[in-house]
Amino acid sequence: MLQRFGAYLLLSALVLGGCSSSTEAQQQLLQTSSPSSSQIPSPSLSPATTADSTMKDVEAQLSELQVQLVFEQVIQAQTVKQISSIPPDTVLKELSISSGKLVFFKKTDDVENVYAAYQSGNSLYDIGAVGGEVYMDDLSVTELSLFNRSLLRTIGSVGANASIYRYFSIADGTIEPFLTVDNGHAREIDVDGDGVMEVISSHGLPMQTFLYKWQDDQFMMANVNEALGAVSVYFDEQANDFKVQYEVGGVEKSFIYKDGVMKQSVR
């Protein structure tokens, strides 16, 4: 009887031991055959797919880039005063225009500049300095019809590659100052196609560009470089857009102007 009971205990121990060994072996086998998270390969994109996606993202961002220009009122410092006469020995040149005559002359207290006077009938107006005397040959005069006004524009040089543009409004035999541009070479262009001209002025290398617009019977001016944070900006008349560089020698980006906003165009 005791021998049978001892044999039974021995058999039970062997069975339980075998089951435990089998369970541990199965767990070791599962751990060995199942890869860890660090061993699972992550999905990857081909270089072509990545490049295409990046380009599309860049183009989408560029096409949506819009910058509001900050316009400030142009303070008119130019003056016109009526005078009785001009000493004949100070007269340099006379030029006939449709509404009268321009007389270019010099002043004894200013040996550097050339002055102009507008004469209509018996009225004579000193319209101020219009350029440097040594650049007298560069002086030009143009009659314009802009902003529902008859304008007179004088362009004179005041230094190497430095010009001054003066615009005057003429009506009923009188002349009044309208706009002075002394920050570069100016052009009158309908930039946004609304039928009203803007004035664009650019100078220097890299190019600095300013945009003037006529609003509520006054001129407003915006510094385009400053608004865009750009190193160089100039207006391309053929493409009717602004070419912008954010670093010297960098890629040119194109911007169009509409309703006071510069919007980058992807072409």
Automatic annotation (TrEMBL):
Q: Which UniProt keywords apply?
A: Signal
Chain intervals with Low complexity compositional bias: 27-47
Show the segment(s) annotated as Disordered.
27-53
Q: Which domain of life is it from?
A: Bacteria
Signal sequence extent:
1-25
Query: What is this protein's record name?
Result: Lipoprotein
State the organism named in the record. Candidatus Cohnella colombiensis
According to the entry, what is the taxonomic lineage of the organism?
A: Bacteria, Bacillati, Bacillota, Bacilli, Bacillales
